Amino acid sequence: RNLKKIKIRTMATRCAFENSNEIGVFAALTNAYCLTGIGGSENFYSVFEAELAEHIPVIHATIGGNRFVGRTTVGNRRGILVPNTTTDP
After folding, report:
1. Which of 15, 49, 63, 89 could join 53 in a cystine, given CB atoms 3.0 to 4.6 angstroms apart?
2. 65: left (phi over 0), alpha (psi -120 to 50) or beta
3. Residue 58 belongs to what H/E stretch?
4. Please, what's the b/e burial string for 21-50 (b: 16 or more CB within 10 A of its CB; e: otherwise)?
5. pLDDT at residue 86, as a whole number
6. Helical H segments across 1-89, by residue range
7. Residue of 74, 42, 85 lying closest to 60 (CA atoms)
8. Stretch 71-79: mean pLDDT, rounded?
């Protein structure tokens, strides 16, 4: 038999933001960056950083003072649209 050695990558990683599995509300991910809402546990941030940090920046942010960055933004590799309540400290 001719067997090949293959590398298996993790297809999914489980994480939660303050006991909520709705991480799409608290994180926004494109192929160019990852935004995560401020106020979560270090475990929440470390999941993103462990998987993505060598490929794209992982940014801790609030949008208009709110932690739900995934719900209030939309973006792609060229940019991001944010509400008019967004400020730059």
Report:
1. 49
2. left
3. strand 58-61
4. eebebbbbbbeebbbbbeebeeebbebbbe
5. 86
6. 23-26, 42-52, 69-72
7. 42
8. 90
Answer whether 44's CB lies under 8 Å from 35's CB: no
- Strand pairing category for 34-37 and 27-29: antiparallel
Between 4 and 29, name the one with better pLDDT.
29
How far is Cα 87 from Cα 42, in angstroms, rounded to an integer? 24
Measured at the CA of 33, the angle between CA 40 and CA 14, to 5 degrees, comes to: 45
Strand 34-37 versus strand 58-61 pairing type: parallel
